[in-house]
Design brief:
single chain; 462 residues; alpha/beta; Rossmann fold; Alpha-Beta Plaits; 7-stranded parallel sheet; 6-stranded parallel sheet; 18% strand; DEAD/DEAH_box_helicase_dom; P-loop_NTPase; nucleic acid binding; RNA_helicase_DEAD_Q_motif
């Protein structure tokens, strides 16, 4: 199948000739599907991963729309990290180099505030920035957005993961309602649906092939005998399949604690979630699992209800669910956003009738899997890539996600890619950082300042 050509889009002559000089002839799937809609001034949600060509899609859209003679901020692009904002700004400059006198300005945390003020005083056409710093400029009156006619949220899911919901709300509140809004995200989780419904007008949904494949969930059933045998098979499958993120479903609160303790005592990154936890304990458990600093969550169905966790590699049913609908709900938590998922269920002779009632295309009893070999018990427990820092300051102390990101990445600190999800509660905040730089991150916040103040910070063990 032939890929569509950029020349079919009827872009400004300066853009067309520049694309030709750059060697851009054919469009990627996300460009082919979204650009015609963007050029018609429609709101678009693009579900696409990094490397899909989405930057050129919205970059060409805003450059086509830009009136360079009108020296006002006409487009605002928000990105989760400084590195991505710099990359996007450079790509827009390269795409628009055939149009004279375009000014693209980056506003990112972790960079000195003063020079940005000076640049803003000289004006710009396009702002590319991180939500925390852009919101700070808006709040201080150094950035006015009343002339913006195109708003782009790039990697929106990552911005929400990093705790920028409040900053985004504040910024969007200053942008005219009569505008075009483009939202690009690798996933289309509930949070994304909510923000899209609130800020977009009849958006067109675009999914590239890499994200709209049918969900592929492989189900495996293992026959076991007693409780100890279930634990043994659990360790074998964890060693065999090495899932980065796993939920183990148990039918009772007592069992969740027993399984979590058994795994934790043997070096696994595992924690229990059930109804007897206090709210702060539940918050901490969920934060650590969502930000991938804990690999295994052992939970009851009641405790796990309402969880919105993306990129779940595997689900394990330590016991078969008592109802078919519950089994379907458990299994459906893996294999989201087009990725492959793995669901493994353990059953004994007494549970065989429950397995039969699941009404699956396979015969789970006759086709039960052979358990992995004993050598998989020797495989070291997977160590999470991330570590969580707890900061004893939150919403009530006016701590914002941008403050934390700036403290970590400023003054030649961490790269933005080393910082994961940021969760802010009333009196504390949690930030995930790559485990290999956790010590440096801890030192950065301990030695530095948030909101001009020092806050106690510690790494959560386990």
């Amino acid at each position: 199948m032939n890929q569509p050509l950029f020349s079919t889009l009827k872009l400004k002559p300066e853009l067309e000739s520049n694309l030709e000089s750059l060697g851009f002839k054919t469009m990627t799937p996300i460009q082919a599907q979204s650009l015609p809609l963007i050029l018609k001034n429609q709101d678009v949600i693009g579900q696409a991963k990094t490397g899909s060509g989405k930057t050129a899609a919205f970059g060409l859209g805003l450059l086509q729309k830009l009136d360079v003679k009108r020296f006002r901020i006409q487009s605002l692009v928000l990105c989760p990290t400084r590195e991505l904002a710099d990359q996007v700004a450079n790509d827009i400059r390269r795409l628009g180099r055939g149009i004279h006198n375009i000014k693209v300005l980056t506003l990112c945390g972790g960079m000195p505030f003063g020079p940005q003020l000076g640049s803003l005083e000289h004006g710009a056409h396009i702002i590319v920035g991180t939500p925390g710093r852009v919101e700070e400029h808006v709040r201080k009156g150094s950035l006015r957005l009343e002339d913006v006619n195109m708003l782009v949220l790039d990697e929106a899911d990552r911005m929400l993961d990093m705790g920028f919901q409040e900053a985004l709300d504040a910024i969007i509140g200053e942008v005219p309602d009569q505008r075009q809004t483009l939202l690009f995200s690798a996933t289309f989780a509930q949070q994304i649906k909510k923000i899209a419904a609130r800020i977009m007008i009849s958006p067109q949904m675009i999914e590239v092939a890499s994200t709209h494949d049918e969900l592929t969930i492989e189900q495996k059933f293992f026959q076991v005998t007693d409780h100890d045998d279930r634990l043994l098979v659990l360790k074998l499958v964890l060693g065999r399949y090495q899932p980065e993120s796993t939920i183990v479903f148990c039918n009772t609160k007592k069992e969740t604690d027993e399984v979590a303790d058994a795994l934790f005592s043997q070096g696994y990154s595992a924690t229990a979630l059930h109804g007897d936890l206090e709210q702060w304990q539940r918050d901490q458990v969920l934060v650590r699992f969502a930000n991938k600093s804990t690999s295994i969550l052992i939970a009851t169905d009641v405790a796990a209800r309402g969880l919105d966790i993306d990129s779940l590699d595997a689900v394990v049913n330590f016991h078969i669910a008592r109802e078919r609908e519950v089994h379907t709900h458990r299994v459906g938590r893996t294999g989201r956003a087009g990725s492959k998922g793995l669901a493994m269920s353990f059953f004994n002779a007494q549970e065989a009738h429950r397995v039969a009632l699941l009404d699956l295309e396979i015969d789970p009893i006759a086709d039960a899997e052979a358990r992995p070999g004993a050598d998989y018990l020797e495989v070291a427990a997977m160590v999470p890539k991330m570590s969580t820092l707890q900061i004893d300051g939150g919403k009530k102390q006016k701590v914002r996600a941008g403050d934390i990101l700036g403290a970590l990445t400023g003054n030649d600190g961490l790269a933005g890619t080393d910082v994961g999800k940021i969760h802010i509660f009333d009196n504390c905040a949690y930030v995930a950082v790559r485990r290999k730089v956790a010590g440096q991150a801890l030192q950065s916040i301990t030695d530095g300042k948030l909101k001009g103040r020092s806050f106690r910070v510690r790494a959560i063990k386990g």
